[in-house]
Amino acid sequence: MAAGTASAPALDQRRRPPAKTPFFARRRTRDLTLIWLFLLPSLVIFALYRIIPLGWNVLLSLEFWSPYKPARFAGLYHYQEMLFYDDAFWKVFWNTIIFMASAPVGIALALGVALLVNTRVPGRGVYRTIVFMSYPVMTVAVGIIWQWLYNEKVGLINYALISLGVINRGIPFLQDFDLALPAVILASIWQVIGFYMIILLTGLQSIPPNLYEAASIDGASAAQSFWRITLPLIRPSLFLCFVVGIINSFTAFDLIFVMTGGGPGHATDLLVTYIYSSAFKLSKFDYAAAMTVANFLLFLGLAFVANRLAGGEAGAIKRGA
Amino acid sequence: MNEGGTARRDKGGRNVKKFAMLLAAGAMALTAGFMTGGANAADKKITVVTWNIPYYKDGFQKWVDAFKKIHPDFDVERIDMKGTELPAWYQTQVVAGTPPDILDLQGGIWLEYASQGGLTDLTPYLKRDKEYTDRIYPEVLNNWVYEGKNYGAPMYISKTLLFLNRKMMKEAGIEKDPTSFDEMMADAEKMTGPGKSGFMTLNFDWLYWPLFKMNGIDFVTPDLKKAAFNTPKTVALVKRLADLTKKGVIDKISWTGRWVEPNGAFAAGTVGMLHAHAPAYLWFKSKADWVNSDTVGAINLPGDWSTPNSHAFVMSAGSKHPEEAWDFMKIATSGDGAVTFGEQTNNLMGDKIADQELMKYFEKNIPAVVPALKTQLEHFDKLTGNWPFAKDAEIKDAFYPELQAALLGQKSAEDALNAAEQKVNRILQSQ
């Protein structure tokens, strides 16, 4: 009994949970607080400049809105207008898709160039610099350069084609409904190809050479090495280029604006240029907001598809990596 | 000891509190002072936005000096914007609640703003200040009327005319200026050759519409409620223009270029005729040595139809100082202010009396520009393309791409005009 009474408090003490550390004194809480404090400025800026405008934009797309009048609820009116009545919207929507679809062409070309300048060619550093030089050039300047190159009367391309006897009259590249968009896409690819090349070159140079040596010993051909080693191992670089390509097609505003202004007709208008024209030239801010939502959804969908193609974990940080 | 320490701490605490309160009071007083000062400064200021005339500094200062004589306690802030940037900038200012008091606008941009209540109705001011109103050409003033209300004080006036490359005409054996559409196109055909085209037009802001009007085509019904352009006559004309474009008689840039491209092409000396508005003359003259009064002729388009593309000062509905703003507008658009502006920018103004002085000035100093300027004061009864549509920009955007597709051979004239008619009617009904 005595033993029993003597051991009871000791048992109680053993069973009692350890003294609670105050919430704010816990290490985990402190770490989390610190993390959130570091993240807070970025999150505030992100919310201010991305989330709130996006939310406001969605709201705007559901209203009849003008800078001069009080807003009225419009429901899905602008979306109906966009989907069923505005053929220009569909034209510029497909233009945007085509512009985007041209990204792989640029990436393929850049990969070719990257493979070339990755070999032991004499002066490869110079070639790399030359190819990359187009990228830092201001987009407006790129537009002006290509506008001149394409000029029907005094353009270098037409001059070359006439001199070579390929054509006998200048081609109005930027005035032709069928040629204007490919012409603008070519200028865009020319500008960004240097950037793609550098990204892909970095990917190529990170492939361990012993993989190629092993493949060579096993009798793999150059093509097999390319398809089985090079291409799978530069997939993250390709993904990055693809994402940049998509973003580029959403932000090619200045190039289009300088080279064609979206014309002829809407032949070179992209969603981004059409949204701008609708808002600021036609004062249809509400309608432009609806198109911006469509643009955002398109972008979201493409980013999702690209992520899936890249293995579903693009941008993820692996623990212990 | 402890009590003494507590007392010292209390006293110290009270001092800190006092200091903090003093600081706060000082800060509040300063803020209040700044705010009052700021409010006063803002209260006594008008803002004037001009359209792409950054070089116009001395003249603007003269306007300000004249304004300050009647409003010495007011400041004038001046902002100059490029035409392409002005609408976007202005509308963001309106949304922000800080629209400028006075705005220089061109063409039909003002209609959108006026129809939505964004501009001040100037009719009461014009009725009150008869002395000013009587100086202005009534037809020019009428260009700034929407639903019976006047929204603009005319600045410089410009409308379309036909420039003739006399060198090319001579080479093609053309001795007489064209007097009809058919003659004009026949002459254009004669001047066309390798690297040369006979005719070109500007296409923005309805500037091409005189080509249709001279062929008897109306864009809308007189009540502005329904499209009237989709007729067999228009189909035939569009087909003809498309055919001439395909042959190179009409330069393709006519339908694709904006301002620089067509005027630049005419400056190159390879275009026989240019249908443009008067300011084009000094632009292409500045780019080409060959341009002078002997080599370039300036006449009214056969049939005398023209599209105005003038400028006016308008007043924001949000102006806090409408009386002062109106005074500034009068100073800038009439009398000495108008003469100063006309001389420094080589334009004619909406003020009849100022224009007499300006014509004398141009005859003496820039005689080459006189023939073009003379056309600007003629045939005010034959203005077209200046319909007061509330959704002017939207109608243009619905119509022109369809027309352009037909003119460049992308669509048949019938299909393009049908589609355009449908779109234009939809907008007209929603106005």
Notes on the structure:
Helices cover 69% and strands 3% of the residues of chain A. In chain A, helix 5 packs across helix 12 and helix 9 runs antiparallel to helix 12. With 321 residues, chain A is an all-alpha fold. The N terminus of chain A is likely disordered. Chain B has 431 residues and is an alpha/beta fold. Chain B folds into two domains: 188 residues, Periplasmic binding protein-like II (D-Maltodextrin-Binding Protein, domain 2); 188 residues, 3-Layer(aba) Sandwich (D-Maltodextrin-Binding Protein, domain 2), CATH 3.40.190.10. In chain B, strands 2-1-3-12-6 form a five-stranded mixed sheet. In chain B, strands 9-10-8-11 form a four-stranded mixed sheet, sandwiched between helices. A two-stranded antiparallel ribbon of chain B has the order 4-5. In chain B, strand 1, helix 2 and strand 2 form a beta-alpha-beta unit. The longest helix of chain B has 42 residues. The interface between A and B is medium-sized, with 27 and 32 residues.
Please supply descriptive tags for the structure shown above.
heterodimer, A: 321 residues, mainly alpha, MetI-like fold, disordered N terminus, B: 431 residues, alpha/beta, D-Maltodextrin-Binding Protein, domain 2, 2 domains, 13 strands
Would you spell out the secondary-structure blueprint of this structure?
The complex is a heterodimer of chains A (321) and B (431).
Chain A (H helix, E strand, L loop, with lengths): L1 H14 L11 H35 L1 E4 L2 E5 L3 H9 L1 H15 L1 H15 L6 H9 L6 H12 L5 H8 L16 H26 L3 H9 L4 H12 L1 H16 L2 H7 L11 H11 L3 H25 L12
Antiparallel strand pairs in A: 1-2
Helix pairs in contact in A: 2-15, 3-15, 4-12, 5-6, 5-9, 5-12, 6-9, 7-9, 7-13, 9-12, 12-15, 14-15
Chain B lengths: L1 H42 L1 E7 L6 H13 L4 E7 L4 H11 L5 E5 L2 H7 L7 H6 L1 H4 L4 H5 L2 E2 L2 E2 L2 E2 L1 E2 L2 E6 H6 L9 H11 L5 E5 L7 H5 L18 H16 L5 H4 L3 H8 L3 E7 L1 H9 L8 E4 L11 E5 L6 H12 L1 H11 L2 E2 L2 H14 L4 H7 L15 H16 L5 H18 L1
Parallel strand pairs in B: 1-2, 1-3, 9-10
Antiparallel strand pairs in B: 3-12, 4-5, 6-12, 7-13, 8-10, 8-11
